[in-house]
Amino acid sequence: MPAPHSGRHVQPKSHFGLRLTIFIAVVALVAGAAIWLMRPQAPGVATAADQTVEVTMAGFTPPSLAVSANKPTTIRLVNPDSSHHTDGGGIHQFASPELGLDVKVQPKSETVFTIPATRPGTYAFYCDVCCGGKANPSMQGTIVVS
Q1: Angle at CA 132, nearest 5°, toward 128 and 138?
Q2: Burial of 55 (0-12, 13-18, 19+ CB in 10 A)
Q3: Which end of the chain has less neighbouring CB within 10 Å, N or C?
Q4: How many CB atoms lie within 10 A of CB 95?
Q5: Contact by Cβ (8 Å): 63, 94
């Protein structure tokens, strides 16, 4: 026969404190991961550039580049324009057929490319995507190789 019961009802230990601690830790991890993923980031530029060129609806800045002969030159091409332009959707181009270049840069972004090593001379570059195309004097420039 079982022992007589003393009349006290024994409750199992509550795990409320442990559960609350685990819940808070999980919420903190999820919130931290979300904040980290949403942090502002600079556009992905993997290579340091020798020169920076900005291209907008107003043209190239600077409109002329000086580079050394027989040495590749890395260019960071920056496009601060938005995609709301009706002419070309804000995309710009750095084209120089003589140097084999045809680089496009999306709105609000930048890209890095290399002007190949070449012989001395003056080479034209332009944007033919928008803004009147290469017929527009502000959408043209020169690369002076010396």
Answers
A1: 85
A2: buried
A3: N
A4: 18
A5: no
Contact 80, 119 (CB under 8 A): no
CATH of domain 51-145: 2.60.40.420
Q: Is the pTM of this model over 0.90?
A: no
Which of 33, 104, 115, 7 lies closest to 71 in space, CA to CA? 115
What's the first-to-final CA gap in the chain, in angstroms?
108
pLDDT, one tens digit per residue, over 67-115 is 999 999 999 999 998 776 656 678 899 999 999 999 999 999 999 999 9
Sorted by sequence, the CB contacts under 8 Å of residue 68 that are 6+ apart come out as 145, 146
What are the phi and psi torsion angles at 25 (to 5°)?
A: -65, -40
